[in-house]
C-alpha cells in the first residue's frame, strides 16, 4: 500500500513544540538522492539552523508548492540555514525521486533525502506533505524544534487553492530565527497528503 493518501480534511500536527528536543545523537538511515552527499540534517555546529520540508512526489499539494519551496530554500541558504527536502516513504525508487527533483527544479537548490525508515519523520512529528520544520541544533546530534507547520497558505483547505499565498510562514520563521527574533506563528496547520507511517519496530 502506498505511503501517501490525499485526505478529505485538514490535517493537524499533534506534537507539542516543547516536547521535541533531543539531547543525544539519533541514528538515522537517510539516503541523499539529489545531489548525492554525506550531509545529514542533524549534523552541524551548536546553534546552527536546519529547515526540513517533507514532500511526496505523488502529492499534488506538495508538487504545487515546489516553486515556493525552492524559493524559500534559496533565501535560507543565503542566511546560512541548511535546507533539506525529505521523502517520508519507503516505496519510491531512487530513479523516481531523482526524476521528481529534476522535473520540479529542486536539483542544485535543495538536498533531497529519502527517509525510507521514517526515523526522521517520526522524530520531527511530520504528519502530512508538504510540512515544514525548523530546527536549532545542539552540536551533538540533538535539536530544538522551533517550527512545525505549513510552508505557506497557498491552500486554504483541501481543494481550495489560492492564486498566490498570502502568508509565507516557513520563510517568516527562517527570517525570525536567523535574526534572533521569536517566531510569531510556530505551529500553523499544514494541509496536504497524509503520511502513512509503517508499524514501528
Quaternary organisation of the protein chains = single chain
**What is the CATH H-level superfamily?**
Glutaredoxin
Low-confidence stretches: 1-20
Care to count the β-strands? 12
Strand percent estimate: 15-25%
* Through-space gap between termini: 18 Å
The number of distinct structural domains comes to 1
- What sort of overall outline do the alpha carbons produce when their principal axes are compared? globular
The CATH class is identified as: Alpha Beta
And the CATH topology?
Glutaredoxin
What's the short story on this structure?
With 201 residues, the chain is an alpha+beta fold. It is 22% helix and 24% strand.
Describe the structure.
- This protein has a seven-stranded mixed sheet, with helices on one face.
- It contains five helices and twelve strands.
- It is α+β, with helices and mostly antiparallel strands and 201 residues long.
- It has helices at 60-64, 66-78, 94-103, 119-124, 169-178; strands at 4-5, 21-22, 31-34, 49-54, 82-87, 111-114, 128-129, 131-137, 143-149, 155-157, 160-161, 193-195.
Key features of this structure:
201 residues; alpha+beta; Glutaredoxin; 7-stranded mixed sheet; 3-stranded antiparallel sheet; 5 helices; disordered N terminus
Blueprint (SSEs and pairs):
Elements: E1 4-5, E2 21-22, E3 31-34, E4 49-54, H1 60-64, H2 66-78, E5 82-87, H3 94-103, E6 111-114, H4 119-124, E7 128-129, E8 131-137, E9 143-149, E10 155-157, E11 160-161, H5 169-178, E12 193-195
Parallel strand pairs: 4-5, 5-6
Antiparallel strand pairs: 1-12, 2-9, 3-6, 4-8, 7-12, 8-9, 10-11
